[in-house]
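1st attempt posting a full record on here, be nice pls
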Amino acid sequence: MREAFGATFIGPEGYLNTAAYGLPPKATVDALERVHRGWAAGTVAGPDFDADIAAGRAAFATLAGVPVKSVAMGSSVAALLGPVASALPHGSRVLVPEGEFTSVSFPFAAHDGRGVTVTEVPLERLPELAADHDVVAVSTVQSADGAQVDLAALRAATEGSETLVILDATQQLGWLRLDLAWADVVVSSSYKWLLAPTGIAWASYAERMVERLVPHHANRYAGGAPWQTTYGLPLRLTDDARRFDISPSWFPVVGAATSLAWMATLDLDAVTAHNLDLAGRARAALDLPPLDSAIVSIPIEHAATRLQDAGLRASVRQGAARIAFHLYNDEEDLDRVVDALRA
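the predicted structure (as tokens):
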């Protein structure tokens, strides 16, 4: 076990794969075990999860810096971007960076039959070309290598215009504080740096988006009072972004509420400093270019195999080994990486 930022983690030693999925604090594991025991005993009921949904929504709003009323609950980033893509007029022009995570680009590319075009450009050119497009969709921190989009330049290029800005913060939230409230859409999964189970994601829709979107997945939770909107017409939806809620995955939402509520109490600047210190020292030791990111892409021959042989968990993305340092990693993990790759 390892203690980090006031929480206990069961098995993070050598785990450097948070960019693929994060490890839960023991409190989250305990909460999931309790609800699964209740399921087995037949003692849980749907309303028991309402408090977890509210807690997860509020924690996401805090972490993303957005109003709670703007937050919708979904199952994945792609599912939350689907209604956004469907709301675009025929012939809309969408701009994405080269090599973008496909949960961001595919929902728009799927509308090519309506004349929607998706153009890929180098990440650094996104702000320069934004004003020539109807939509810009980008991960604030790139999944493959940890590179960050210049959000200040993107905001300056689009502010006051009709261009919609869509930000996927999945590789950011939980380790990096960035100002995102100005964007039209902010989406994030919970299972990476937010240390929750898969199956729960969140979106913040700005007011001008709420006015455009159709709640394609309208269900009893979209009414805001799910136990009063279970049967019969007329359609009864909330006035805020909850109208886009899907029916939740009950057990994952317990884990999401526990992990996100805890993370929302942390000094995120301290988490950022911790992560960047380890990642920066790894880059320096491996003679890699400096980059202010907790994600480290390692284009060293056989790097993934050497890490695996040393008992370290990592990924391979775009032909390079990818490691990620989060709050439960320490100098021992750093030393093992350097030893494995400099041997």
